[in-house]
Fold these 2 entries.
Entry 1:
Amino acid sequence: MKKNSFLIIALSLIVFISACKKDQGSHTGPGNFDRSSSAGLEDTRDIPNTTQTLPNVISSSTTLTSDKVWIVNGPTFVTNNATLTIQAGTYIKGVKKPSPTSKPSFLVITKGAKLEASGTEANPIVFTSNEAANSRIPGDWGGIVLLGNGKTNVATTQAVEGMKPEYMTDLGLSTDVIQYGGSVEADNSGTLKYVRIEFAGDVISEGNELNGLTLGGVGSGTTLDHIQVSYGADDAFEFFGGSANAKYLVSYGNNDDDFDFDQGYQGSIQFAVSVKVPCLTYSSSPNGIESNNITSPVVVVDASRLTQPVLSNFTILGQPSAPTAAPFTTSNGALFRVNSAYKVSNSIVAGFATGANISGATTSGSFFGNSLVHGFTAATSGTPFSVTTSTATSTNAFIRLVNPFNVNICTTTKPIPDFRYVTAPTPSPAATGASFSSISVTHPGGALTAFDTTPTYLGAFGANTVARWDDNWATYTPQTNPYL
């Protein structure tokens, strides 16, 4: 969350979709993901007509079944160590607040509670806007906040930034339900697997927007696996401390940073891709990765615990060609600052003004290597690096992925991005060069055990001759998916 205001503009009306109301509780068929041209097109599955609104306080274990569409209307909290279980294939829609002074819709899993959301490749769980197709915009609703007892470098009374007290007190809750952090590295806040989060980022107080997925003090016992955040009005994923590991993450067209690390986060993430999408409004500094250690005004209780994400097989993409206007004339593909440490390997960072910037980071014990780094102005800033660099005017001329920038929603052509590397006629430099030796370290998040060390390639995806891991469950057309 950033303390500045963002302009949110409506997405272009590309395709007009009309729908007739189905009989109450009926289905017209199983529906499908439309994959006629390539992976990642539309989610056209039929969904139930029956809806049910979640209570704003869930204090006992509850299951959301896939035979209904569940509505989040206003601030919603899972408390009292309860578990919220969501069946595969379930749709949860956040209500857009009717006026700027109304309360936003969001879901908070408090310390001790759990979210068990296990979708499947064929039946992902979808958190999206309650608005109709072509009317959805970033910030329609708040997003998901997962809070745990994992370690941070700030006080365990640290609260989610920007939450107004009345969001809790009007529901009879104490304001401490939004505190996070503790001493349990392996704390378990549940499971998010094959989950999509769309059109999140609503304003919760002046200058504060929620992220698609906010994680505060979330421990390594939590499972984060195959999650896509699209069209959020702030960051896609933000980790405040904790040591949660994650894999197979997608950030698509989010307003600010794609992956943000703060307050002593020490976890491991492998296989993650992000891309900035034209025709959207962005913040003043939309970075691919941003990592901070300790920033004011929080109270520091453990200055020895530096933020140090361990990252492998990332593909971080900005623009296909050199931008001519802000904010992308000054943005960073990866920005490590405020004494943040880091370990980055086997990755691709390209399409930003500066590719990777470590000039304000802690380099002792850090590593950034075995990667392709491109920047239109400068590939790198700060030292040391052990990477292959380029300042080419065409991003993909250097990295040579199949079709990574086919994401332009300004046109009537549906986006079909493909982030795999090209094998012929000229193989991509991402085809070889992977090494895990410099990031296999003892780490609270489990870097030694969390990584798949078999890939020999750089970036989030393998060759264009092999299957892609975003097939079937991810979508790159959330603004036009009917969800009917």
Entry 2:
Amino acid sequence: MRIGHKKILLKEVATFLNGYAFKPSDWSKEGLPIIRIQNLTGTNRDFNYYNGNYNKKYLIENGDILISWSASLGIFLWENMTGILNQHIFKVIFDKNIEIDKIYFLHCMKFLIKKIEKNIHGSTMKHITRPEFEKIKFPIYEIDIQRKISKKLIFITKIIENNKKLLNKMEELSKSLFTKYSKNKKVVNLELEEICEFIKDGTHQTPTYVNTNENGYKFLSSKDVSKGIINWDNTKYISEELHKELYKKIAPKKNDILLAKNGTTGIAALVDKEEIFDIYVSLAILRLKKEYNPKYILEGINSIETNQQFKKSLKGIGVPNLHLKEIKKVKIPIPPIELQNKFAERVEKIEKLKFEIEKSIEEAQKLYNSLISKYFDN
């Protein structure tokens, strides 16, 4: 069978058994764990239990494939204890007169679900009906080809997973380094206003944006600062006239620190290159005095301890925000400059390793996307 030669309806591939409609009154503190959507997505890992009579068809064993079809669309390989299935989740039963490799099915359905997510009912509560679901066209190959495809995809996903684990270890290493240096005997706790030349926020007026091809200037808000980095790729732009007006008040430069006042509240990022841009009120800009290392201070601002200080200072209902006066009073443990510099050197080495790992993940992901498009979208 050549690639893409045959597609069949999903109902011809397997039977999709919907779970049992448990009521809260059925829940118990012992018995079989009830497998709900939140147990699959990880939003809540705690189980409710059922200790009554049940039909064995609803039992889920380690290795079963499950598909959530309401509220959250997704496919999952169950790798856990025996449980009993709740409603709004299909148990996939391969009982048709056709050979299917389970891992091939898993990867193919992940791809197909992403495609149908764009055309389903409900703007916030995603939902697909059984008739619609069973009419999805599924690309089928001879079993030996399915297994070859599975082998390739397993290999690539393992590379991605292992590199992501390594990336997490690198991030934990940075945090542990900060803990080590911030606990030095020579450390003093200083307020941010003591270590900064100034702490200001951006314009309080919502600007009129322009297209990038209109000689616009980059305009950053809190949405452009996340996970300790600035995302320069999706920024909005303002006119040259407005830029000149704003730039007279605040002219950001390399090694300034941008701090999210709302949105991703309390997250900071370093301006790591020479770039002309302006900022919105949702960002504060911190310009450090020369005797402080920006990379060390950045790690201090993004630390758990500082984050807790920020949380205590949040103001407002609905969209809470940080006020400048609270930001200025937040304290950071400051070691001597020699230790700050040593910390920065080590973090720089870690950042280089992280960059290489991220690059490897990106390349592996591109290869994975290319293969699933080749095998499943033709």
